[in-house]
Amino acid sequence: MFGLKGKSFLTLHDFSSEQIGELLELAAVLKAKKKMGIKGETLNGKNVALIFEKPSTRTRCAFTIACTDEGAHPEYLGKNDIQLGYKESVKDTARVLGRMFDAIEFRGFSQKTVEELAEYSGVPVYNGLTDMYHPTQILADLLTVKEHLGSLKRKKFIYIGDGRNNMANSLMIGCCKMGMHMVIIAPESLWPESGLVTTCTAYAKKSGGSLTITEDLNSVKGADVLYTDVWCSMGEEEKASERIKMLKPYQINMDLITKTENENVIFMHCLPAVKENEVTEEVFESKYSVVFDEAENRMHTIKAVMVATLS
Prior knowledge:
Its main location: cytoplasm. 42% of the residues lie in helices and 14% in strands. The protein has 311 residues and is of the alpha/beta class. The chain folds into two domains: 12-134 and 297-310, Aspartate/ornithine carbamoyltransferase (Rossmann fold, 3-Layer(aba) Sandwich); 142-294, Rossmann fold (3-Layer(aba) Sandwich). The strands form two sheets. A five-stranded parallel β-sheet has the order 7-6-5-8-9. Helix 1 (17-35) crosses helix 5.
């Protein structure tokens, strides 16, 4: 597994395209086994701490089931269950949990927190979401694209909406590393940070992909994937009315689907969706939508990460 044992999963920057491909292949194998009712024993005797500063449906359920399917014990630690970062430093909490658990998942606000947990715990740490990155979601997205379109290379992947949130950041990294033609369509004020664009452009050049940042909605022509996310991330609720006004022209609706000129285009969303904002109900419930395959794949790809780094 390309030497992944003991490695943390904090951002896809830290993984080669070969390693990402290996994780996707492992996830497909584990998914097939689960469909056949075959449970594994690769994580027998392991204990995994699940730290949640932010609430979750998919991330919590995916980690919990992935652990139990492979024989591990997941321990949920909500924001009121431990004293992370206020009565006790992240550094000290990391060293305590690292003595008791074999791995730690963190879903919260600061990327610095998940990096400190990895630095001081001595065990693999998994980023279940921060304000900057959401790498476990991207693995699920890539697996879903492979399942529906057969491959990743040279597929045109369009992300529309807030182009500088954690999903846009992480999709840029993943798609550019895997040789896809990544396009972010967003108002210029919501374009991704220039340093990240430079880094991802280099990834794309190496993999045979490309990266385009634009305001032009006509760029959806030839899209294989249309992807969007909520217009206001968790913690930005006070900006809702401003964002809705700014991003309404960037809604994914049937007119935009038609503009792709691809009857086999797929629609993706990391969920939860605010229907009639970033996507219409019509598209969400249409034949183009693969959002629930994508949601299920969170479990299989998260399982693959834990098996590769712990077993």
